[in-house]
Design brief:
The chain is of the alpha+beta class and 713 residues long. The chain contains 25 helices and 28 strands. A five-stranded mixed beta sheet has the order 2-11-10-3-9. Helix 1 (3-26) packs antiparallel against helix 2. The radius of gyration is 31 Å and the shape is globular. The chain binds 2-(butylsulfanyl)adenosine. Residues 82-84, 114, 116-117, 121, 179, 227, 299, 317-318, 321, 323 line the site of 2-(butylsulfanyl)adenosine (IVH).
Length: 713
């Protein structure tokens, strides 16, 4: 970017940030996350660092705090409200510890961790034990009076509990701090009702406490957890240690809050060093979804109040605490180009190529745009600044365009009318969102099919990456997957990627792979709609004729008993692919439709695929090159759970989820993901998710691990 472009960009970024601040803090209606906002702010900072001449006093980088909305009475906080510093990695957290340790040399520090609830910070003042005022954080000095809505919340007591024979009349002024939030369920309920929509629990909580009408707030199930207390001495209410137990530690604070009848979040924990904080953080990254409410990290606090006071604070935040936040799952970036990718079923997917950006700890430079309709709906153009999102293992996607940042030079994307790889016609059937290449021998389809065929859950062949497959095709050594099994050492060693040893290794893996279970085989064919599960259902339904053959021990990999102790060769029962073709062709469309777990669309697809002469030719070729289907006579198979459907939730004491699922299937039952009236049992462990509540609501039987094991004993 040159100087002029930077100036223009700085202007746009500032405008955008001002609007975001207003939407978020004043109107409580921004859909754009704080993480995305932070990224824009960072870009502004960087540009301003590069061109300090463009910094203006009104730049959002030049001020702290937020705007007040003006609807409610402003109240001056008794003590100024600070915010927390944050850290995003183990290193940053240990740096924080090092810094604060220096402020209290020689003192042994201990810590409390609390969950960082994603809600709204609130101060509540009790006078003579009675709720007097509830005030939002506001700009830290002045907040808004939201007493009228907070009074409707069941988790906020109107009167504090009396401490051991202590008279409420003698209570000093007590100011407590905590987080107002909305559970995931309540938030969903409100959004499902179709009225005002909230993007996250924080917005929902803010939007609700700042309702003028308390009746609306009363209906919305707001909740509150408390985490701080400030006992205020003054002449009217003198306090002495004998009257109220002033906490010496954060642990005592939490206990005192509970004694006063103020709820604390129950997952707080005492740590004698940061080691356990680091390991807990790892656990919470995985466990957070099982909570009924959203959290965005852990708050780490020095336990001793004496230490806290010695550490003091910076202009914005106390030094004794920091928020260890989960990695941001959203960020912003600019679209450099949009390209079309052709998948193994011929589907054309538009992909955005991005200026590399960090999301949740990894660098992202491509994001899916899904399909033509999505591009049009979001109005995505090359050159746009966009919000990118990544959650868990899923492919990053473009969520939204920041249209205010456009310069007018962005170019709209047009879906091609011909396949960008082979030039054939593209077809988009009525009612479908996906366009497809019509050429069954399109190079891209071949490539993707082959990559799928050798992938981990299919034939699982090592040493056959994208590049190698590309070369094998372009050197005309293979046309389809069957040709892989006829590759010769001489063919391979002459290739760029194969030195002597690699060639032999690949041939060895191919040999091991020749014997494969029927479900894996069906999955490997890469038929549209046939994922792992459907492949298994179909394979289970077939009665294949088997015969015994002798194999090398390591070829028996689908039966878990690999290698070593075993004899060098072994007899196993296998079926032929020809028999698989016959058995599937015997099934009519109606037969297929009746198989539990196979719907109309899938039945049609199976029927068409296995009755297509080109495909049958391909299957016969696979038989010819030596692929055999290993018959899986599983030990311990029973009918004890026949026709019974299970849903698993939470962490089981000894069984892993996969193990539990295997046991269900082995005993003839079915494991599914969602609870419905048809579910027979919910198998629940600790920290169960929403499935547990749904089961309770529907009256589905809930069992624990011992009860489950009893069923199959
Ligand atoms: S202690 C000086 N403890 O996080 C402020 N804050 O980023 C003392 N929060 O404004 C805050 N859970 O709204 C603290 N267990 C917890 C918290 C928590 C959520 C929020 C709070 C605060 C923000 C700071």
């Amino acid at each position: 970017m040159d100087k002029n472009q930077s100036k223009e960009r700085i202007g746009k970024l500032k405008e955008w940030l001002k609007k975001w601040n207003y939407d978020y803090f004043v109107l409580d209606k921004s859909d754009v996350s704080e993480a995305a906002r932070d990224q824009i702010k960072k870009e502004l900072h960087e540009l301003e660092d590069e061109f300090p001449e463009f910094i203006t006093p009104d730049s959002p980088t030049q001020r702290v705090g937020s705007v007040l909305s003006g609807k409610f009475a402003k109240i001056k906080h008794i003590t100024q409200k600070q915010s927390l510093s944050d850290v995003f990695s183990d290193e940053e957290l240990t740096d924080w510890e090092e810094r604060i340790q220096k402020l209290v040399p020689g003192e042994k520090l201990d810590f409390i961790t609390e969950l960082k609830l994603d809600g709204l910070n609130l101060s509540i003042v009790y006078e003579k034990g009675k709720l007097f005022k509830a005030v939002t954080r506001g700009n830290g000095v002045f907040g808004e009076d939201v007493t009228h809505t907070v009074r409707t919340m069941p988790s906020v007591p109107l009167t504090l509990r009396e401490l051991d024979g202590f008279n409420l009349e003698n209570y000093p002024i007590i100011e407590v701090g905590g987080e107002v939030f909305m559970s995931k369920n309540s938030l969903k309920k409100i959004n499902d009702e179709g009225g005002q929509q909230f993007a996250n629990p924080r917005n929902a909580a803010a939007g609700t406490v700042r309702q003028l009408n308390p009746a609306v707030a009363a209906k919305r199930n707001l909740e509150m957890y408390f985490y701080s207390i400030n006992i205020i001495p003054n002449t009217q209410y003198p306090i002495s240690k004998s009257q109220i137990p002033i906490p010496n530690t954060q642990l005592e604070t939490l206990e005192l809050l509970q004694k006063l009848g103020l709820r604390t979040e129950k997952h707080y924990k005492h740590h004698t060093s940061l080691d356990t904080v680091l390991s807990d953080m790892k656990d919470w990254k995985k466990k957070r979804d099982s909570l009924a409410y959203e959290i965005d990290g852990l708050v780490v606090k020095v336990n001793s109040v004496r230490h806290q006071n010695l550490m003091g604070s910076t202009a914005k935040s106390p030094r004794y605490a920091t928020a260890y936040k989960f990695p941001a799952e959203q960020s912003t970036s600019q679209i450099l180009d949009i390209e079309i990718q052709v998948g193994r079923t011929g589907a054309l997917t538009p992909v955005a190529y991005l200026k590399p950006t960090q999301i949740a700890g990894s660098t992202v430079s491509r994001a899916t745009l899904h399909n033509e309709d999505e591009i049009r709906r979001k109005d995505v153009r090359v050159g746009d600044t966009v919000i990118i999102q990544k959650a868990g293992d899923i492919i990053p996607e473009v969520v939204e365009v920041l249209k205010d940042l456009r310069t007018g030079k962005e170019t709209p994307f047009k879906m091609p009318t011909k396949c960008p790889v082979c030039g054939s016609e593209i077809e988009r059937p009525d009612g479908e969102v996906v366009s497809r290449c019509t050429n069954p021998s399109c190079y891209a389809i071949h490539q993707q099919q082959l990559e799928h065929f050798v992938s981990r859950k299919a034939f699982d062949i090592d040493g056959l990456g994208e590049k190698v497959i590309e070369q094998l095709i372009s050197e005309k050594l293979i046309e389809d997957a069957a040709d892989l099994f006829e590759l010769r050492y001489e063919d391979l060693v002459q290739l760029e990627f194969f030195k002597d040893k690699k060639a032999q290794n690949l041939l060895d893996s191919l040999e091991v792979a020749e014997i494969i279970s029927a479900p894996r085989f069906i999955y490997a064919l890469g038929i549209r709609y046939i994922g792992e599960e459907t492949a298994e259902i179909l394979a289970d339904h077939l009665q294949l004729e088997t015969h015994e053959i002798e194999i090398k021990a390591e070829q028996k990999r689908d039966q878990m008993t690999l290698f070593s102790e075993e004899p060098k060769s072994k007899k196993v029962a296998v079926a032929e692919i020809g028999n698989l073709i016959e058995e599937i062709q015997k099934l009519t469309l109606e037969d297929l439709n009746e198989i539990d777990g196979i719907g109309d669309k899938v039945a049609d697809m199976i029927y068409d695929w296995f009755n297509n002469s080109e495909n049958v030719k391909y299957l016969k070729k696979l038989q010819y090159v030596g692929i055999k289907l290993l018959s899986e006579k599983k030990e311990g198979k029973t009918d004890k759970l026949k026709n019974q459907t299970f849903v698993i939730t939470g962490t089981l004491p000894s069984l892993s989820r996969d193990k539990a699922k295997d046991l269900i299937k082995l005993n003839g039952g079915k494991a599914t993901a969602t609870v419905s009236k048809k579910t027979d049992y919910v198998l629940a462990g600790t920290e169960p998710g929403s499935k547990y509540r749904k089961a309770e609501k529907l009256g589905v039987k809930i069992i624990d691990e011992p009860e489950f094991l009893n069923l199959i004993k």
